[in-house]
Amino acid sequence: MIKLRYLHLLHRWLGIGLGLFVLLWFLSGLVMLFVGYPKLTQTERLSHLAPIKLQQVKLNAAQTWAATDNIGQPEKARLAMRLQRPAYYFLQNGQWWSAWADVNGSSKITEVLAKKTAAQYENNAKSTKTLLTAPESIDTKLIDHDQWSISSSLNGHRPLYRVALDDTQGSELYISSHTGEVVLDTHRSERTWNWLGSVIHWVYFTPLRMERELWRQVVLWLAFAGVILATLGLWLGIQRARFNRRYSGDRVTPYLGWARWHHIIGLSAGVFCITWLFSGWLSLTPFGWFSDRDLSATESEHWAGSKLTTQEMRLPVALTATNIKEIEWVKFANKAYILAKNDQQEWLIDIESAKQVPPFSSATLQLQAKQLQKNAAIVSADWLTNGDVYFHQDAQKTPKVLRVTFSDSLKTSYYINAQTTEILASQDSNSRVYRWLFNGLHRMDISPLGDNLLARRITIFVLSTGGILLTVAGIVLGWRRLCRKRK
Q1: How big is the chain by its Cα radius of gyration, in Å?
Q2: C-beta separation of 387 from 393 below 8 A
Q3: Looking at residue 127, what is its pLDDT?
């Protein structure tokens, strides 16, 4: 009996300490159903670019790279238009560099250039040749980080020019000081809602988030304490409930008022609260447990066959396409290709013939895939038209996806875009467990809800409402307890 009392006390004081956090997690999670964290998608980025004017390209990638005085070879290289001029973009050692493709020399990114880029970006979106925003009227500030530019994916572009556009949406653009590219955009409503959504939900406050491991530990322990709180509450609630030999007044609970509601709602929504808090805790990979699977650098090298060099980054003489907004050089099975992109699609172009490369066959992709798992055999290779439970496929952009599964101890699978040879995703037994524990339990990405966004939102809303009511009742009880302590 004494031990049970201690558990009640632990549950009570954990609730007093964490109740507000859990309530905010539920409320902010509902906001996140409709407003995501600010980011610049590939489609958005390309939609703001002008088609490449190939006739203006006077230098090849090798000549341009040599002029940058960098040693070795770039890891990636792209070609696109900036301010009506073609420019190369090179990645080396995690840093991006830019140089013009029409003259020999690097492209120094100044505040004036950033303002012009921002104005052009806005005007390209409006499909007009007349500048709607005057560059000199744009407010610009050079920053390293702020609330919306914390992502490590932007590290290769820092510091960033944050440019505030004079438009009705309160738009702000973040422009790389290395390449002059727009790498992030935000809008006033997006920023406002995220203060109520992602920032609270992820405890994403800039000073804390800048210390990545400290932030991780803070959220990890808060979520773990939340799991203990919810688990204790459900267990104690079951202990106190009577479904057969009921309490006076035919009640299943001995409590009255707010305590009664807290008990009843806890019995109904307690399991969801536990699984939701537990899956959120798992997203921080405690003890190195389950997580998503990322393609390793070694796998990428084996897939390419060999490292891409600037000598291979050539433009076909006969290339005349007018709808290409960006060119990236890629390598597959020891051969270099041009990956042409616009905001609608991506396709490979043969450098020698300048012709579009048809989708690769299953046999060709499997032959190269064997290089990824040299000590295992391929057990299956299946064409997907609508993805599977571990991979969501955009059938319009990637109609031909080959899933190749190996016999290694982790049953590794690769999802390959047959049109571009890109490995879109990779899964193993570890990441598959994570998919069910996080995507399934936290995002309700389970059958039959997975492909029905409306049904998922309704389900999450209903379950979260239960969690909100449970937490509010607990906060009221905790507040009353504190008030009694003061007297």
Answers
A1: 27
A2: yes
A3: 47
Q: How many CB atoms lie within 10 A of CB 289?
A: 13
pLDDT digits (tens, 9 = 90+) for 71-95: 889 999 999 999 999 999 999 999 9
Asked whether 304 and 331 are in contact (CB, 8 A), the reply is: yes
- Of 407, 316, 410, 303, the residue nearest 365 (C-alpha): 303
Other CB atoms within a 10 A radius of the CB of residue 45 amount to 20
User: What's the rounded Cα separation, in Å, for the pair 213 and 235?
Assistant: 33
Q: What is the pLDDT of residue 51?
A: 94
How would you label 400-438 residue by residue, b for 16+ Cβ within 10 Å and e otherwise? bbbbbbbebeeebbbbbbbbbbbbbbbbbebbbebbebb
Tokens of 268: 């109904």
How many beta carbons lie within 10 A of that of residue 25, not counting itself? 24
Q: If you count them, how many residues does the chain have? A: 487
Residue 151 burial (10 A CB sphere; 0-12, 13-18, 19+): middle
Taking the whole predicted model, whether its pTM rises above 0.85 is answered as yes
